[in-house]
Write a structure and sequence with these properties.
Number of strands: 3
Radius of gyration: 24 Å
Oligomer: single chain
Largest sheet: 3 strands, antiparallel
Number of helices: 10
Number of domains: 1
Shape: elongated
Length: 278
């Protein structure tokens, strides 16, 4: 585990992964014969991991579909896509462990052995099936009135299918939370941090808050609205936590930049003094 020996204990920004003591992929595991060494996480990645867990809890509920369909949920389709999304997230996390030499399943080891991005490709393929299931599902409404789960024959009504887009966004949010958790795990084992992950939480932050406000007027109309509100509240909270993580990251980066500038000025000042004294 890398140790910080600087005089001023300022947390490193997440994008700084140049430390020579940082563990690299499976080398630590192969040398010690066990788990690879982990770096000590700074404040920002720890916060982002917590944000991903909060987002995960909220996105695991039908926080969009239950509200948009007024509780008329196509449960077989929803549960099928939900399970597939969880499997995709597990492949991302387990594949990360296999790629860095940590304890992982034989499936992920085989996929990572074939190609380092093999588990990611398998996860995307599984999630694609979840999207297809969502696109093939319908919950028809005539305005605000529920009609049916199948398109009525010989109807002249302009019906609105309120399920597919909301389901895809819902499961996409869940996959984002799972992928972020896997990404922080990779960073912990010595990988590089991608700042796009906390940036992508802006969408859930906004959507979660809006869904809570939208469903607030529906409380008491149907039982599932409370589940939707709870899920949306957690999604919004997780997104806001990640946004705060970005603020912490930028603040840490500024501190590091100021320290480097000050060190450079001190070095130049010392050089000038040395030339004058000579």
């Amino acid at each position: 585990m890398a140790s910080d020996t600087r005089a001023i204990p300022i947390p490193r920004p997440m994008t700084d992964v140049s430390d020579a003591k940082t563990p690299s992929r499976a080398s630590g595991a192969s040398q010690s014969g066990g788990e690879p060494p982990k770096r000590e996480l700074e404040q920002a990645p720890l916060m982002l991991r917590k944000a991903s867990v909060v987002l995960m809890c909220g996105a695991a509920l039908p926080w969009m579909t239950s509200i948009e369909t007024a509780g008329h949920m196509p449960w077989p389709s929803w549960f099928g896509a939900w399970v597939l999304t969880l499997i995709a997230g597990w492949l991302l996390l387990d594949g990360t462990k296999a790629r860095y030499g940590a304890k992982a399943s034989g499936i992920s080891k085989a996929l990572a052995g074939a190609h380092p991005m093999g588990p990611v490709g398998a996860a995307m393929a599984v999630f694609l099936v979840a999207i297809i299931i969502s696109l093939s599902t319908a919950v028809y409404f005539n305005g605000a009135e529920f009609v049916d789960f199948v398109l009525p024959e010989n109807t002249e009504l302009e019906l609105d299918n309120k399920y597919p887009i909301n389901a895809i966004l819902e499961f996409g949010t869940l996959l984002l939370a799972l992928a972020t958790f896997a990404h922080i795990t990779a960073y912990e084992y010595g990988g590089k941090f991608n700042p796009i992950f906390p940036l992508m939480f802006v969408g859930p932050a906004v959507a979660g808050v809006f869904k809570v406000l939208e469903a607030g007027s529906m409380l008491g109309d149907y039982p599932l609205v409370l589940v939707g509100v709870l899920g949306a509240a957690a999604v919004g909270a997780g997104g806001i936590m990640a946004i705060y993580t970005m603020y912490v990251t930028m603040k840490d980066a500024k501190v590091q930049g100021d320290l480097k500038k000050e060190a450079a000025r001190e070095r130049k000042r010392a050089e000038r003094e040395a030339r004058r004294s000579s």
